[in-house]
Description:
Strand content: 5-15%
Distance between the termini: 73 Å
Shape: elongated
Bound molecules: zinc ion
CATH architecture of the largest domain: 3-Layer(aba) Sandwich
Amino acid sequence: xxxxxxxxxxxxxxxxxxxxxxxxxxxxxxxxxxxxxxxxxxxxxxxxxxxxxxxxxxxxxxxxxxxxxxxxxxxxxxxxxxxxxxxxxxxxxxxxxxxxxxxxxxxxxxxxxxxxxxxxxxxxxxxxxxxxxxxxxxxxxxxxxxxxxxxxxxxxxxxxxxxxxxxxxxxxxxxxxxxxxxxxxxxxxxxxxxxxxxxxxxxxxxxxxxxxxxxxxxxxxxxxxxxxxxxxxxxxxxxxxxxxxxxxxxxxxxxxxxxxxxxxxxxxxxxxxxxxxxxxxxxxxxxxxxxxxxxxxxxxxxxxxxxxxxxxxxxxxxxxxxxxxxxxxxxxxxxxxxxxxxxxxxxxxxxxxxxxxxxxxxxxxxxxxxxxxxxxxxxxxxxxxxxxxxxxxxxxxxxxxxxxxxxxxxxxxxxxxxxxxxxxxxxxxxxxxxxxxxxxxxxxxxxxxxxxxxxxxxxxxxxxxxxxxxxxxxxxxxxxxxxxxxxxxxxxxxxxxxxxxxxxxxxxxxxxxxxxxxxxxxxxxxxxxxxxxxxxxxxxxxxxxxxxxxxxxxxxxxxxxxxxxxxxxxxxxxxxxxxxxxxxxxxxxxxxxxxxxxxxxxxxxxxxxxxxxxxxxxxxxxxxxxxxxxxxxxxxxxxxxxxxxxxxxxxxxxxxxxxxxx
Length: 662
Ligand code: ZN
């Protein structure tokens, strides 16, 4: 590991932040915190914390000592000056004289001493930063240090490796007790430049931002060299032998059927541990640093690889493994809840990481963003474990200490406070996504919290190229989506094209082309969707853009109308055949939407033919209002939400007696 400190960049940061009224201490603190946060082998996703002791003018005009320490919710990789809120230092230092302080009282004391009452909560490690006298303090969960901190004889290893430079702090949960203990260790080792927190991480400090940062890099580099010297840390990652596109929907479905929370996103990662002969035993050892338990739980769930029929594997292997994990988790909860005197609220008992030989590690989250964080942490766990095993034995923090962090009162207080959106965790596929209705539909589903996969034969931002008239491209697109999210829940089959001409003189090829796009392409999409939904065996929803032409044909529009009429029959057929799979199949019938199918030129022409202006033409319905792409998008969202409706046609045309269903 090498230092990425650059004097020129540091100077520019000081200048830039000075324009925002930020002093040099906080500017340099921000600069080097970002250097740490930019390296995932040092800190991951909100992990680690940093501080600087500085002076500020308070409201009375008095210059006071402050601790600027990382606030909760900030990530070191992207932190800005407000990410290190200022806390009055003297009142924090007085707390050290107390013999006990609850976590709630500690958080309250920290908040009460903020200079800005709107600032985020200072880190739970604030007092540790306060009680250490150095000006700049850096704290990370560096993988290489954890590989040595998670050893049975880690104190001896660090004494040999670091000498008097670093002092060891035995494991204590973050909070007041750890802050006091760390300060005592520092006082007993006044020559130390930092602390190793056994089974937790590393602190370094310095008189300048550069000194604290470069000491961190040097100590992590020492640990990396120690591990590298063993010659066994480079493990070749083998490509998965199982087809993730085939396997993931079965895993996802089993998870979705296994409890109250209906939808999960899966994020698969390559893994060596998943293929390890001792996987079952290694998986039980625990997390690399305690706060990872909030993302991954204490242990991943090993699941034996499938060998043949995936549906049978799901029933005979996956479901029993999930049930066993939940039962063991409940026993773990009861055992430890009793130990701490009871009263804790049990968290969801399902695993957050699965380990399947031939497939890898599969992270599980309520949203794609959270599954990705869990995946990153699972990979850091694996890297730490493999490095630790290469030089000794991976022996991280044990069950009781893990539980205390997982069921920390500060974490319990957050439960149930996050609002869940209606379609959170659901994967929505939208075809014809580059068009007006497709893009409005994507926006509407995203607003409901869904994960969106966009397909179109045209290019567009965030859109995957797919010609839905080609069954192979459609299959490939669904496989890609499954590899990305683990499965599919809702499909909006929207791609279409209005092809005109009187039937008797219509070119045969034109008619067949219309059927390719307006009928067969929907069949291609529906077939692939049903394949994935049936593998999940957890319901799902197919939605089709059918158009008013299916009900109320217009003259010289037969190529389009007959294909759409056949599509309406297809919708009903799928509803009929897959109700027993819990798959709902519904149609939306929009009319007169300004889009690629009804262009401005067409609107002008039709308005002229009817002798009205364009506005009157577009508002030519019972409500007298133009119907927009966003109105159609809402109809798709509502159709997806109606859990007991299938085979339905929802008309979005402002009211048109001739197009009413009867
Ligand atoms: Zn920490």
